[in-house]
Amino acid sequence: MSESQNENRDNNEEKKDQQPIKTSSGLDENLAGLLTYLVGFITGIIFLLIEKDSRFVRFHALQSIFVSVGLFVLNIILSFIPIIGWGISLLIAPFAFVLWIFLMIQAYQGKWFKLPVIGDMVEKQLNNMDNN
């Protein structure tokens, strides 16, 4: 057997040994992270309230809340600006959809993807919650 085949076999055995991390909600950590984004701030709040152990899930729950509330407020503000605001709002919608899908994928892959600005705010809030 060649050296690269041995490495592939070893990597596959390591992946089999790695069990998904369970959260206090009973779900795998990456699945719970994905679900925090599913219905925006609603699932974000739900997972923030029920998750006690996983910092990963609480991070994604907070990021979901911040992003969805921020986009909601932005759309409300833009709706009061005739024509230009409505046009910008129409341009933001596909961006928000792509961002939503992207964040769910990142969470499902187990990545701590931190959005610029919002991610820093989320980390500060999470640190405050951990200290209390």
From TrEMBL:
Subcellular location: Membrane
Taxonomy, superkingdom: Bacteria
Annotated InterPro entries: MamF_MmsF
Keyword list, A-Z: Membrane, Transmembrane, Transmembrane helix
Coiled coil start-end: none
UniProt biased composition (Basic and acidic residues): 1-19
Naturally occurring in which organism (per UniProt): Ornithinibacillus halotolerans
Region Disordered: start-end pairs: 1-24
Protein's name according to its UniProt entry: Membrane protein
This protein's GO CC annotations: membrane
Membrane topology summary: Multi-pass membrane protein
Segments traversing the membrane: 31-50, 57-77, 83-105
Keyword NAD found: no
